[in-house]
């Protein structure tokens, strides 16, 4: 995911370059009001009311954020989210969904969305979350450049610039969220984090009621970096407290 940081570095160098936001929303009234407020904040906004067209626009690249409704004509929002996370460039995603579609919201977060808002939502709150998300993305890019080189924990190597991770030189294929989670752990080896800590630090918001999203990503990450995911030796569960990345030489068992 090297393009993520390089793209945002280019944006910093272009001081007058407006952030480009793609809205894929089939409710034209919602999209128009949201577009108006975002343009008041000096964002460049493009709207699509159709999933197929929205996906084509997304694939053209160059977007700083995607606001994505899940219930769309054509390609649905979950599929767009999945395809977005398979693209080279990382685009922050905020999903919106009807209150009754809790399962869809959970799936959206687990597919790699950065945030969600349930409908009906406050347009001002959504604009505030867009601004907060873009600030967090820029801070992550800046921090990775300041930190410079790779982080090494035992045989694991995590490079925040290229967004690559390897184990004994073998590439590990990670989703953007899995990479962010592993990199966060690697910055704090041996430290225990609760699920809410991880949601706040890695996802950017405390999604109360969605702590199980962390469990899902931990399990997926273990499947990729552990010799035996059922007997983890790296990402350990500290019962009643949370998770930690084991220090090299630390006993390889989940702690009581």
UniProtKB/TrEMBL annotation:
Residue span(s) of domain Response regulatory: 20-134
BP-aspect Gene Ontology terms: regulation of DNA-templated transcription
InterPro entries cross-referenced by the UniProt entry: CheY-like_superfamily, OmpR/PhoB-type_DNA-bd, Sig_transdc_resp-reg_C-effctor, Sig_transdc_resp-reg_receiver, WalR-like, WH-like_DNA-bd_sf
Alphabetically ordered keywords of this record: DNA-binding, Phosphoprotein, Transcription, Transcription regulation, Two-component regulatory system
A Pfam family that the UniProt record links to this protein: Trans_reg_C
Domain OmpR/PhoB-type intervals: 148-247
UniProt key word Transcription: yes
UniProt GO cellular component terms: cytosol; protein-DNA complex
SUPFAM superfamilies: C-terminal effector domain of the bipartite response regulators, CheY-like
Chain coiled-coil ranges: none
Domain of life: Bacteria
List of residues that carry 4-aspartylphosphate: 69
DNA-binding annotation, residue ranges on this chain: 148-247
GO MF terms, alphabetically ordered: phosphorelay response regulator activity; transcription cis-regulatory region binding
Main function: This protein is a positive regulator for the phosphate regulon. Transcription of this operon is positively regulated by PhoB and PhoR when phosphate is limited.
PANTHER family on file: DNA-BINDING DUAL TRANSCRIPTIONAL REGULATOR OMPR (PTHR48111:SF4), REGULATOR OF RPOS (PTHR48111)
Name the UniProt record assigns to this protein: Phosphate regulon transcriptional regulatory protein PhoB
């Amino acid at each position: 995911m090297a393009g993520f940081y390089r793209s945002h570095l280019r944006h910093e160098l272009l001081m007058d370059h407006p952030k480009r936001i793609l809205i894929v929303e089939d409710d034209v009234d919602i999209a128009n009001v949201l577009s108006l407020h975002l343009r008041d904040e000096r964002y460049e906004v493009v709207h699509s009311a159709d999933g197929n067209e929205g996906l084509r626009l997304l694939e053209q690249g160059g977007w700083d954020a995607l606001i994505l409704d899940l219930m769309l004509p054509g390609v649905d929002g979950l599929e767009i989210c999945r395809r977005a996370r398979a693209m080279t460039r990382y685009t922050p995603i905020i999903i919106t969904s009807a209150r009754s579609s809790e399962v869809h919201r959970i799936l959206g977060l687990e597919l790699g969305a950065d945030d969600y808002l349930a409908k009906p939502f406050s347009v001002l709150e959504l604009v505030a979350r867009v601004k907060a998300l873009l600030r967090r993305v820029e801070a992550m890019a800046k921090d990775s450049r300041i930190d410079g080189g790779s982080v090494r924990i035992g045989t694991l190597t995590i490079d925040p610039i290229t967004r690559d991770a390897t184990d004994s030189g073998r590439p590990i294929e990670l989703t953007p969220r899995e990479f962010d989670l592993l990199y966060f752990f690697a910055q704090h080896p041996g430290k225990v984090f609760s699920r809410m800590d991880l949601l706040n630090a890695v996802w950017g918001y405390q999604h109360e009621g969605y702590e199980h999203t962390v469990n899902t990503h931990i399990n997926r990450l273990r499947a990729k970096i552990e010799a035996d995911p059922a007997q983890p030796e790296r990402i350990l569960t500290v019962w009643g407290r949370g998770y930690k990345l084991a220090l090299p030489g630390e006993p390889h068992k989940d702690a009581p």
